[in-house]
Amino acid sequence: MKYLDEFNDPDLAKRLFDEIATTATQPWAIMEVCGGQTHSIIRNGIDQLLPDSIELIHGPGCPVCVTPLGMIDKALAIAARPDVIFCSFGDMLRVPGSHQDLFGVKSMGGDVRVVYSPLDAVKIAEEHPDREVVFFAIGFETTAPPNAMTVHLARERGLTNFSILVSHVLVPPAIAAIASSPTSRVDGFLAAGHVCSVMGTREYGPLVEQFGMPIVVTGFEPLDVLEGIRRTVAQLEAGEARLENAYARVVSDEGNVAAQQMLSTVFEVCDRQWRGIGEIPASGWRLRPEFDAWNAELKFDVADVDAPESALCRAGEVLQGLIKPHECEAFGDECTPRTPLGATMVSGEGACAAYYQYRRLDVPVEVATGG
Fold it and tell me: What is the pTM of this model?
């Protein structure tokens, strides 16, 4: 547990808090674009220990949360077929569709299986040549390379009974959409270190130049987040806007070149719907036409499935940083982890789930700097 101890040092955390407080002379709003960072912030009370002048805004950093309702309904329609073994990571099973979730399909006899790697789904397809095996491929750039690899392997091995349902989204276009919105209150961004470990940092420099906002790449432990905030505040106070890498132990400028090559071989950039936000141009990946045989949307003819969002759920405003989760009228009442209206309440990276789990309601609670 070396790194857990190293990046949860209360004395160093206090020094970082003190430096941020000393540096900040005016109000600043900083958005973290990663659900893992959001949970670290709320779990450790970082937002409550910062000076009142620093506001942390929770962005659309949870890929489960931004998967559109129509895509969930496509997954439900495919999973309900008797000839299908539907494979997914566990965090998708309780995400509500229009009428039910994947657990509901499973309870009604659907063969829905939790896997811990997309390669597990390939193995299942090899073991069950008489069944169609579908893997639900969602996520940001972080999870996309192994999902691309499954399609590459399926083609190499002649697995015509394997396909993937793709709902991959990209972080830089989301940052651009938020920064260009007339309702945005964001002064600077904390970029997700795990995304940059795959894609590198090159895509963020042009965003800094376009919008004149600092972007600091950082990690997920409390000290990582605090260092990212410290650097962002220092830039804002100095009237500067630069791209900084505060997660150099993991992130390089070029990223994982081999992973990028696999991605460009299997996927192509497309417009993508974001749940509660709408369509963001060039913000997703889809399979290239040469991989149509492994495209579950085409194989099962669900490409045109669409669905309206819940009128009660304000997850879209949460994901855009316009409101905090507890400011939604349904939070903790009509919407709980047992009766979720949206994915932000059930995802392991959802902001609403973090606020509910750590009791972050209207009344501030006492928190400690320790892990």
Answer: 0.89
Token look-up 């083609």 returns 155
Domain 68-170+255-299 matching CATH 3.40.50.11740: the answer reads yes
pLDDT tens-place string over residues 275-326: 878 899 999 999 999 999 999 999 999 977 766 777 788 888 888 888 999 8
- Which residue do the tokens 């150099």 mark? 248
9 three-state secondary structure: coil
Buried b (16+ CB within 10 A) or exposed e, 144-159: bbebbbbbebbbeeeb
Query: Where do the structural domains in the chain lie, given as residue ranges?
Result: 68-170+255-299
Amino acid at 348: G
- Are 231 and 20 spatial neighbours (Cβ–Cβ below 8 Å)? no
Which pair of structure tokens corresponds to residue 283? 């913000």
Q: Tell me what pLDDT residue 62 has.
A: 87
| CA–centroid distance for 265 within its chain | 23
The neighbour count for residue 94, using CB atoms within 10 Å, is 18
Tokens of 345: 């309440």
